[in-house]
Write a structure and sequence with these properties.
It contains 16 helices and 15 strands. The longest helix is centred in the last third of the chain and has 24 residues. With 489 residues, it is of the alpha/beta class. 46% of the residues lie in helices and 15% in strands. It binds zinc ion. The site of zinc ion has 3 residues, from loops.
Length: 489
């Protein structure tokens, strides 16, 4: 089978044949979350996009080292190196240690990515755990004369870099335009040019997260961590760097400049960017009142949602669009995705009930070829899903007796679903609500029996604890003459 994989490279703006630096190995770095808030849709799309890439590369037989970082320091509120550190601000508002904020939201991120069936990366480094590597990189850039110290902070000299290399190759921006478009911001006088970016920031007295360095007590600039950690774990040049389109400038542009100036070679072979999401046609934003967290999606608890949507519905919906297309979340589109997902899952059950025939009217091998072709064409998941629906149609027709399948066809179809839907797209059957209801009934019966025994033994601590724990998940218990009853509030 021809399994040449073509990836759209944002850098060259065309599809290129994937040829990894080391045969049979693939290195991938994806910018992970800045952990200062609850995971939301904006987190789900890049995670699922690069989960598909990770899964497919492994399916093709590559040994993949997938690095996805956690930003826990240095991401300021403004791209112009101004404002508070996002995590420090949250910590101040909540009266917590910054690392408590980091731990809590990292755990939440992992929990929700798990529910979306996103595989864990091979390495998940944190910026605060790589200060030594970042300081070493800054020193190298200062020594090379491409970074300069100013008032205890260190900035990357973009104009100087641009004299020999081209700044803006990824985003297509040119320095002259940047110069014309940047306003003179307050506190920018430390920089030679407004487009220079911070490698190290001197900490203000109230800034909690700080480390010693030759320049000042301070903290690293946000862009630096990805250069330092990708070099450490994947080498000076690695295969794939991914992230959301919004990170292309200045974040990825800065990464390219820092790494190139430091290591004298381009850091990345293939740059991949997923497009943005909108909600009912609008950009998602706190000020727009349409900022929806994943928990709100799963519970249906946001006013913009007419119902709850399961993790698999969200995953399927995201994969139904190509990662380079914009994706609009609206209730109607999500409900259609839910129906589509259910239909796909049902077909996997229906196929178990089909009696094999001696002749065949279907060509499953060709269908499989089309599935591979879709993935090999820059991970075209919507085309892949369309091909899986052709398989669904064949299964349902065969079940209705309108199409004939041999035993061989049936086993090929089962393999098609398990390979493409489950293994590569990461779609999993969810518990049917009716089935789930039976499970809950059984569990509640058991829990209330334990509580009744505790009460009979005058073990009030256990009995109270059960009632409180249930109340915490909105289940209230009432004691009646005939025993305890329960209801969901
Ligand atoms: Zn990054």
């Amino acid at each position: 089978m021809n399994n040449d994989l073509y990836i759209y490279n944002t850098l060259s703006r065309k599809k290129e044949l994937f040829v990894p630096i080391n045969p049979n190995h693939a290195g991938m770095y994806v910018c992970g979350p800045t952990v200062y808030g609850d995971p939301h849709l904006g987190h789900a799309r890049p995670a699922i996009t690069f989960d598909l890439v990770f899964r497919y590369l492994q399916h093709l037989g590559y040994k993949v080292r997938y690095v996805r970082n956690i930003t826990d320091v240095g991401h300021l509120e403004s791209d112009a190196d101004e404002g508070e550190d996002k995590i420090a601000k949250k910590a101040r508002l909540e009266e917590l240690e910054p690392m408590e904020v980091v731990q809590y939201f990292s755990d939440r991120y992992h929990e929700f990515m798990g529910r979306l069936n996103v595989l864990k990366p091979s390495i998940e480094p944190r910026a605060s755990g790589h200060l030594i590597e970042q300081i070493a990189m800054i020193s190298k850039l200062v020594e090379a004369g491409i970074a300069y110290e100013s008032n205890g902070s260190v900035y990357f000299d973009v104009e100087k870099y641009n004299q020999t290399k081209k700044y803006g190759i990824l985003s297509g921006r040119v320095l002259e335009d940047l110069l014309a478009n940047t306003r003179d911001l307050e506190g920018q006088d430390e920089k030679r040019n407004s487009f220079d970016f911070a490698l190290w920031k001197k900490a203000q007295p109230e800034h909690i997260m700080r480390w010693p360095s030759a320049w000042s007590e301070g903290f690293p600039g946000w862009h630096l961590e990805c250069s330092a950690m990708s070099t450490k774990y994947l080498g000076e040049t690695f295969d794939i760097h991914g992230g959301g389109m919004d990170l292309m400038f200045p974040h990825h542009e800065a990464e390219i400049a820092q790494s190139t100036a430091c290591n004298h070679k381009p850091p990345v072979k293939y740059w991949m960017h997923n497009n943005m999401i909108t909600i009912n046609g609008q950009k998602m934003g706190k000020s727009l009142g349409n900022f929806i967290t994943l928990e709100e999606f799963f519970k249906g608890s946001h006013p913009a949602l007419t119902q709850a949507y399961s993790p698999m519905t969200i995953r399927f919906f995201i994969l139904q669009a190509h990662y380079r297309s914009q994706l609009d979340f609206g209730n109607e589109a999500l409900q259609a995705a839910q129906k589509g997902f259910d239909k796909l899952m049902k077909a996997m059950l229906t196929i178990q009930k089909i009696a094999p025939q001696s002749t065949s009217t279907a060509d499953i091998a060709s269908l499989e070829k089309l599935c591979y072709e879709a993935l090999n064409d820059d991970f075209n998941s919507p085309i892949l899903i369309a091909n899986l629906f052709e398989a669904v149609r064949i299964v349902n027709s065969a079940y209705d007796g309108k199409e004939k399948l041999t035993a061989e066809d049936i086993s090929q179809l089962k393999k098609l679903f398990s390979t493409f839907a489950i293994e590569i797209l990461g779609l999993l059957p969810e518990v049917d609500p009716a089935e789930g209801g039976k499970v809950v009934e059984g569990l509640m019966k058991l829990i209330l029996e334990i509580r009744a025994n505790a009460r009979a033994n005058k073990d009030w601590a256990t009995s109270d604890r059960i009632r409180e724990e249930l109340a915490a998940v909105n289940i209230s218990v009432k004691d009646t003459k005939d025993g305890a009853t329960w209801s969901i509030d």
